[in-house]
Design a protein that fits this description.
Number of domains: 1
Structural class: alpha/beta
CATH topology: Rossmann fold
Distance between the termini: 19 Å
CATH architecture: 3-Layer(aba) Sandwich
Shape: globular
Largest sheet: 7 strands, mixed
Length: 251
């Protein structure tokens, strides 16, 4: 076992949307991984600011629902503080929307309806990318495994974000153009889910049953699609995460 020299904190909003396949990658790289809940009475701000890597995960709420979920204010503020300090930070789905909000970008319900299911990503048609040429090339190389035409990723969101100023726009889908962006080499925001595993997804079908039934989504068909696509996504995700972590930590 590698000797742990770095700490990683995963912040959850619902317990079944966890690190998934990323957990084993971090363990292999020697991270001591801790999970905290955003909804706990004492918001874990100090842990968020002190950890080497912060990963904020998904959930079924909107970043703009501050009156209903006041802890979101603390999350946004802590994320903004980390980004200002250039500390490695990754956000998935709601986590990506929180990063976008912390950077001053608008997040709102998508005009094209909920995007739930498996489909491919592609490079954005127009990208006002900033940063050094080497950073752009490094991030393009990291993202390449996720942009192959025969790979489908899991989408599960109703809200969408605008691309903040001064970031690198990295991916789009047929339904929503803003699927991923990076802030130099230290922050990554993914609207889609690259972390899911075949076995772990069964918890999603139960936890999100109200949403799935309300939207008339065929659960057995969604499960079958997961079994077809999740193994390849896990392999591509491993390449992506290892590459991004190398860049974020200068490995």
């Amino acid at each position: 076992m590698p000797i742990s020299t770095r700490t990683a904190l995963a912040l959850t909003h619902v317990p079944f949307e966890d690190l998934g396949s990323l957990a084993s990658i971090l363990a292999e790289r020697g991270f001591a991984v801790e999970t905290a809940e955003a909804t706990t009475p004492e918001f874990p701000r100090k842990k968020i600011l002190d950890c080497d890597l912060f990963v904020v995960l998904g959930g079924p709420i909107g970043v703009y629902e501050l009156q209903d979920y006041p802890f979101l204010k603390d999350e946004i503020d802590a994320i903004r503080t980390r980004l200002m300090a250039h500390k490695p930070t990754a956000g998935i789905c709601l986590g990506a929307q929180l990063i976008a909000t912390a950077l001053g970008a608008r997040v709102a319900p998508g005009k094209n309806g909920a995007e739930i299911g498996w489909s491919a990503l592609h490079a954005p048609e127009k990208s006002a990318q900033t940063g050094t040429a080497s950073a752009k090339n490094d991030l393009a190389a990291c993202f390449a495994p996720l942009l192959t035409p025969d790979l489908n990723v899991l989408h599960w969101h109703g809200d969408t974000f605008e691309i903040p100023e001064g970031v690198m726009h990295l991916a789009s889908s047929k339904q929503y153009p803003n699927q991923a962006f990076a802030v130099d080499n230290y922050a990554m925001a993914l609207q889609f889910h690259v972390e899911v595993t075949t076995d772990g997804l069964e918890r999603w079908y139960v936890g999100h049953t109200g949403e799935l039934r309300a939207k008339g989504i065929d659960i057995p068909a969604l499960r079958a699609a997961g079994k077809r696509n999740a193994p390849a996504l896990e392999m591509a995700g491993r390449k992506f995460w290892n590459c991004w972590l190398d860049n974020a930590f200068g490995a």
